[in-house]
Design a protein that fits this description.
Layout (H helix, E strand, L loop, with lengths): L2 E4 H8 L10 H16 L2 H4 L2 E5 L11 E4 L2 E5 L6 H11 L7 E3 L3 H9 L3 E3 L1 H24 L7 H10 L6 H6 L10 H12 L1
Parallel strand pairs: 1-2, 1-5, 2-4, 5-6
Antiparallel strand pairs: 3-4
Helix pairs in contact: 1-6, 2-6, 4-5
């Protein structure tokens, strides 16, 4: 499902866009967002993700398209603002019912709904994304905790002995018949008399 993200809107909702950003602050904020998205989205989602940022007041020579960590990043160069570019991308989407537009901007949400695309508020979507990221990290930690190499035969035998599995070879002789002599012979006698009768 393609994702179309209103970049600065999501930065603000995620709390990654602080007040009083100094030189290079917006760039650091954008990189933080891209890094968070790359860690939280599945690889197939990354390839279908487009993030749109405003380009008003951008330095000269800013490219209009970048690719980072599998995602497409667009700067609204030549547009009034990012919303105008997002609206154009929504109109151009060949299969809008599959599109998810992430923005809390009402104008952008209306444009998405007009084409029957899904509109997700930035804060709610980001909260869900953060939860997914935590789940993926926990799963990765669980995977790392498991031994990555098979256990040796001796190790398996040791742990089986520790937990009451197969006995050690010297114990096996003692446990060949763990029941006392004559145990349950009366049941065998009953079975043979029933089959005879």
């Amino acid at each position: 499902m393609p994702l179309l993200i209103d970049g600065y809107n999501l930065l603000y909702a995620a709390g990654l866009l602080g007040r009083g950003i100094g030189p290079g602050g917006l760039e650091r904020s954008r990189l933080a967002l891209v890094g968070h998205l790359a860690a939280a989205l599945e690889p197939e989602e990354l390839a279908k993700t487009t993030i749109v940022f405003d380009a008003a007041g951008a330095p000269p020579g800013l490219p209009s398209v970048l690719h980072s960590r599998g995602m497409t990043i667009l700067f609204a160069v030549g547009y009034e603002d990012a919303d105008a570019l997002i609206e154009q991308l929504i109109r151009a989407e060949p299969n809008p019912r599959r599109l998810v537009v992430v923005s809390s901007d009402r104008r952008v949400q209306r444009a998405a709904r007009r084409r029957r695309a899904s509109a997700a508020g930035s804060e709610a979507w980001y909260d869900d994304l953060s939860r997914r990221r935590r789940q993926r990290q926990a799963a990765a930690q669980d995977q790392q905790a498991k031994p990555s190499v098979p256990l040796l035969e001796e190790e398996v035998a040791y742990w089986l002995r520790q937990f009451g599995g197969e006995p050690a070879p010297e114990e096996a002789a003692d446990l060949a018949d763990p029941f006392p002599p004559g145990y349950a012979e009366d049941l065998l006698d009953e079975d043979s008399s029933e089959s005879a009768g």
